[in-house]
Each structure stands twice: as C-alpha cells, then as structure tokens.
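Lab meeting, item 3. Inverse folding demo.
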C-alpha cells in the first residue's frame, strides 16, 4: 500500500479541515503584536529600573578619576616624596617610612639645588628649675605638701585649679610665657627642587613659587603671603583649585599627580609594574639585575656566613616584607584545604541522609519530611551567615570556614542526592530484588551504579565552587586568603597586592575547574577532551 503522508494537501482539503476545526484557524490579532509588545515591555521595565535605582545620577556623580586610579594601582606603584617648605625658605625632602626606593632614596627624576643657610633650631634642653616646677605641677599632692614644693615660692602652684591671678599662684604667669630655648646652626639645605613626572612633565619647586609643566602648558602657583595659595593666570583643565586660596591639585595622567599647599608639595609619581616583587629593599639582593643575583647564587662569596646565597635568596623571597609571599601562599593553601575538607565532610554526611529523604528508598513519610526540612534549614542560611556565626563561636580561622562550607553544602548536596535517588530507574532495582537479594544488596547493586557517578560529579562541582566561596567567607574572618585580601583592600593603597592575590585565586580556580571537568567527564562516561 502506497504511503500518502508526503502528498501535499489541496485547497479543498485545507478548507475542509478549517471548516471542521474553526478554532485552530481563527485569526488572533494579538499574535501579530507579540514580538513588538515583548520589546515594549522590556524597554518600559528598563526605563523603570533606570529611574528607580537612579542610575543616571549615579553615573553623573561617579568619580571616574578615582576609579581610574584604582585600576592603575593594580598594575603600577607610586613613589611619594613630600617637599616641606620651612618658614625660613629651606625645603625638606621627606619619604614614607616604607618607601619602595629603600631607606636612602636618590632617584634620578628628582634634582635639587642646595645652599648653606644659617638656621635657628629649638633645643631640647630643660633647666632644673623648670623640671622641678613640672614635677610639682603634675604632683597628686597638694602643692605645699612636704617634699613637693620647690625652693621658689612663686612656682608652687603653676597648675592650680584656681585662676592665674589668685593668691596661691600669682607668680607663675611670667614663667609660663618664657620662650623655648633655641640655637643657631649652619646647614646645607635644599633651596630648589625639580621633579620630572613622565616625559617632559615637570614640577619646579621654590620656597615661594611652584611651576607646573605638562606637555606644552605651564602654570605657576604662588605660595603666600600667609597661608594662601594663588594660581597665576588661567588654570588648565588638568589643574584644580576647589576653593580660592586653598591647595591646588595637578594631574599628570597615568604618570602621577601633585598637591600644592602653602607649606609644601606632595608628589605622587607612578611607575608601571610591581615594585620589589622578588626582593624587598632590606634584602642584599635588592636593586641587582637577574644576572648579578644568579652570579651571587652560583659562584659569589657568601653574604651570610651561616647559610648559602641560594638559601638566603629563597628566604628573602619568602619573607619579602612588601609582598609576604610565604604568608599569601600559606593562606591560599588554607583556602584550598578549607574548601576540600568542608565539601568532603558535607558529601559524606549528605550521602546516607539522602537515602532517608528519598521517598522511593525510605517508605516513611515522617523520615522523608524530617530529612528534607533539615536540608532546607541548612541551605536556607547563606554560607556567609554561617561563617559569621562560626567565627563568633570558634574565633577567626579555617575551622569557622570549614564549618560554614560543611553546613551549607550538607543541605544542598543532600537535596540534590535525594532528588537523584527519586529519579532512578526502578527496573534495575526490581531485577536485583527478583533474584532474592537482601535489601542492602538491592541498594548496592540496583541503586548505587545509577546514582554514584551523579553524586561524585555534583561533589566535584561543589568542591570547585567552594574554592571561590572560601575566598568570600574568609573576608569575614573565616581564614584563608580572603582575610588577607580584605586586609589589603582596607588600606586603600595596596591594590597591587590585591591584584597579586586575585591572580593567584584565578589560577587556582582555573586549575581546579579543569581537574573537576576531567573527573566528571570520566565519571559520567564522557570522553576527555
């Protein structure tokens, strides 16, 4: 018999079908407008969200310069020299305590002019009479008590609670107004300084005037009289002064910025890269090229008589004060172990509980509901909340993080395992039961072969996911590299350290993602790519 399924319908056949089923062929006008209406709904909802969350105002008020500086700090570092201008015209160059240039920096991008100047400096000398008066003034005893009053009656009550003109202390007003001791010295001081910020950008500092040059534009800033700061001429767009007479801010793009006030200039000069990443400024290998370091390690004389140069170099790398490599790597290992142990314990506990929660395995509705509600309770509380709870209970450390992962994942894995058990094929279980196998053997040979690969695959996925989650919960005190990351972010200056730790976390996540995918592929019977 020839098949007629592929023969085309004639117009009479179509009309006959339409007559018998008019509801199918009924024209619905709204169908032709479904796509435009859906697009309109999306647009209206987007407008509503834009208005409700004030996105326009947020974008308008956002400080993009600060955001740009934060991003630049991930791949660069700043050197921060401060030029303090003394009242006598001397310029003092000061560096931060932990400067990336070491304890005695002399960079080539700063040039100075010096001169010999006679300066007046205060001395720390204190006369015996003043010392006796100070002891009396700070005594807990009555000023006239035995052993407390000095020989001069005029200084016995210099810090009395009574008014200065009172009879008990009238003779102390003149003593309190005596000027501090001073001495005149001859010193060589900086009288002018020039800072090269980038290519062709200069900051020329003099006691009463600072000249800023960026590209072909220059602007002069006058310091004084008094505590005033005045910009001479028009200000270019890279120079700002928010209030007249107050400090001036100058931006030199990626290369840095300067803050000019009446009593000095603060310079922030940016350099690409991570400073002192291998050796810090206290290391004997600091400032040497890779070839020089290698030469010292291979054939150079011992720097430390008690250890080889190789051992000394490795020790200096591990205990680098700026980057703290050993501490960072230890905290990263804590995060990995925290995620692994928490996930492992969660899988071990969730495995038997899932059999009690599955309706087709355990025929007790009470046990099913108790276990399922228990899973709901564990997973309904976020891992971060559990971490806060266990941090208060156990104190900061990996134990709090492992407990948080264990509790959360026990609930989630238990639910997933129970659902997998409820969706198994009963034919395989019935076949094992039909040969007279015990209940335990039925579960062993009729159920586990179906669900074990799924269980293992889900546990591996959660292990990989918890490696990322452990970083977040570590920031609240649950140990690991998350706490280290949060400490670096709180300083608001060590963003290159943040970038370093983020790169390490990404590398670990990528590695574990590849391992987890390969193992899951093998367990689920797929081909390894």
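The presenter then showed the designed sequence:
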């Amino acid at each position: 018999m020839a098949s007629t399924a592929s023969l085309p319908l004639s117009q009479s056949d179509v009309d006959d079908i339409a007559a018998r089923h008019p509801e199918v062929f009924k024209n619905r006008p709204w169908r032709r407008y479904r796509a435009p209406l859906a697009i309109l709904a999306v647009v209206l909802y987007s407008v509503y969200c834009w208005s409700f969350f004030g996105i326009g105002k947020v974008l308008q008020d956002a400080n993009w310069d600060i955001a740009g500086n934060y991003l630049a700090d991930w791949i660069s570092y700043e050197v921060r020299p401060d030029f303090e201008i003394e009242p006598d015209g001397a310029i003092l160059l000061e560096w931060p305590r932990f400067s990336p240039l070491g304890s005695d920096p002399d960079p080539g991008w700063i040039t100075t002019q010096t001169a010999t100047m006679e300066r007046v400096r205060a001395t720390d000398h204190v006369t015996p009479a003043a010392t006796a008066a100070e002891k009396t003034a700070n005594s807990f005893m009555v000023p006239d008590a035995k052993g407390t009053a000095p020989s001069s009656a005029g200084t016995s009550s210099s810090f009395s609670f009574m008014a200065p003109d009172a009879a008990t202390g009238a003779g102390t007003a003149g003593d309190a107004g005596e000027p501090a001791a001073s001495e005149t010295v001859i010193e060589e001081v900086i009288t002018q300084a020039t800072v090269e910020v980038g290519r062709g950008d200069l900051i020329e500092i003099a006691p009463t005037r600072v000249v800023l040059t960026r590209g072909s534009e220059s602007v002069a800033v006058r310091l004084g009289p008094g505590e005033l700061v005045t910009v001479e001429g028009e200000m270019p767009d890279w120079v700002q002064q928010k209030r007249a007479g107050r400090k001036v801010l100058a931006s030199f793009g990626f290369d840095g910025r300067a803050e000019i006030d009446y009593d000095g200039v603060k310079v922030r000069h940016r350099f690409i890269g991570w400073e002192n990443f291998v050796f810090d400024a206290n290391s004997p290998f600091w400032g040497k090229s890779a070839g020089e370091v290698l030469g010292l390690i291979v054939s150079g004389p011992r720097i430390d008589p008690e250890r080889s140069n190789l051992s000394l170099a490795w020790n200096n790398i591990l205990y680098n004060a700026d980057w703290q490599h050993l501490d960072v790597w230890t905290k990263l290992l804590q995060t990995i172990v925290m995620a692994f142990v928490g996930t492992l314990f969660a899988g071990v506990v969730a495995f038997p509980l899932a059999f009690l929660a599955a309706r087709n395995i355990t025929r007790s509705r009470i046990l099913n509901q108790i276990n399922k509600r228990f899973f709901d309770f564990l997973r309904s509380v976020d891992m971060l909340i559990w971490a806060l709870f266990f941090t208060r209970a156990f104190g900061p450390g990996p134990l709090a993080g492992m407990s948080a992962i264990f509790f959360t994942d026990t609930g989630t894995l238990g639910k997933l395992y129970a659902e997998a058990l409820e969706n198994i094929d009963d034919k395989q279980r019935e076949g094992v039961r039909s040969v007279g196998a015990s209940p335990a053997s039925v579960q062993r040979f009729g159920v586990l072969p179906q669900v074990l690969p799924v269980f293992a695959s889900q546990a591996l996925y959660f292990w990989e996911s918890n490696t990322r989650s452990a970083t977040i919960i570590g920031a609240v005190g649950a140990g690991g590299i998350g706490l280290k990351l949060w400490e670096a972010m709180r300083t608001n200056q060590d963003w290159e350290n943040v970038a370093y730790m983020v790169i390490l976390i990404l590398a670990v996540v990528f590695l574990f993602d590849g391992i987890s995918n390969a193992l899951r592929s093998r367990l689920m019977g797929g081909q390894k790519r």
